[in-house]
Description:
The protein is of the alpha+beta class. It folds into two domains: 5-215, Rossmann fold; 222-305, Translation factors (Elongation Factor Tu (Ef-tu), domain 3, Beta Barrel), CATH 2.40.30.10. The protein is 22% helix and 28% strand. It contains seven helices and 15 strands. It has helices at 18-28, 34-46, 62-67, 97-104, 122-133, 153-167, 203-208; strands at residues 5-12, 74-79, 84-89, 109-115, 138-144, 174-179, 222-229, 241-248, 251-252, 256-260, 264-273, 276-278, 280-281, 286-291, 302-305. The chain has a six-stranded mixed beta sheet with strand order 2-3-1-4-5-6, sandwiched between helices. The protein has a six-stranded antiparallel beta barrel with strand order 7-8-14-11-10-15. Strands 9-13 form a two-stranded antiparallel ribbon. Strand 11 (264-273) and strand 12 form a beta hairpin. The longest helix is centred in the middle third of the chain and has 15 residues, at 153-167. The chain is elongated.
Amino acid sequence: MKGELLRFTTAGSVDDGKSTLIGRLLYDSKSIFQDQLAAIENTSKKKGLDDIDFSLLTDGLKDEREQGITIDVAYRYFNTPNRKFIIADTPGHIQYTRNMVTGASTANAALILIDARNGVIEQTKRHSYIASLLQIPHVLVCINKMDLVNYEKGAFDKIKEQYQDFAAKLDIQDFMFIPISALKGDNVVNRSKNMEWYNGPTLLHSLENIPVANDLNHIDFRFAVQTVLRPHTDEYHDYRGYAGRISSGILRIGDQVTALPSQLQSRIKKIHCANLELQEAYPPQSISIELEDDIDISRGDMIVKTTNQPQNSQEIDT
Length: 318
């Protein structure tokens, strides 16, 4: 697990503290530069704030900074001695829900933030439904702003029960609850001295120990073609490749594959990842492949192993 990449997204209603939480994670894990820290300290003072406004670390658009909200998806990268992380900080406003879906689409885990004063509200449920539909395997419910309810265990337990009743309807296999204060730093990276009644892990410790490898399907090869590569240069005059991200399964040179829906078949000639030529590839790598035969494949087609094809149907069970 050491060094393994984890992609996670934030979710929850507007002003529940998603951007502040990400900023606090970056700050307490010492993942920001001194000039960045100086800039947000200066801006926070200009705004008349007593504490550092950590949300400024992720709110990059001018409108976001001026309105104090997140509109677009902001990606941030950081690492600890135990793991590498890619964060997708997503908007909470209902009109930007599609941006939230974009950020959550590749996540291994979702942080659902809930304001300890408000409990489970409509946007909390909406984002949780989306996490379930996207089959995000791990959900961490962060009950935030515990400092505004005097760090009371009763407030935490009430919201935990609320969410558990709601989550019973969802297809979420693994979720846990953490009481935090993103603004003050309680239970984000460092254990809170204000909530000694909580004996669970901090948020960062939980993120470092999510077993990502167990979530991957290495049997059923599925590769959705995102781009057909035709350089049209003298060096690559006859080159035809297919780029995309492996959703599941393992691919090797020489494997017989079938393109769907055409059912045309060929074998894998070459596999490339960045500038490297590979003998095999596995999820969630983004790769390009060459086939031995020049068959008709378009963007949106699915390439699968000939001996392991998905079942086609026009009906679904719900």
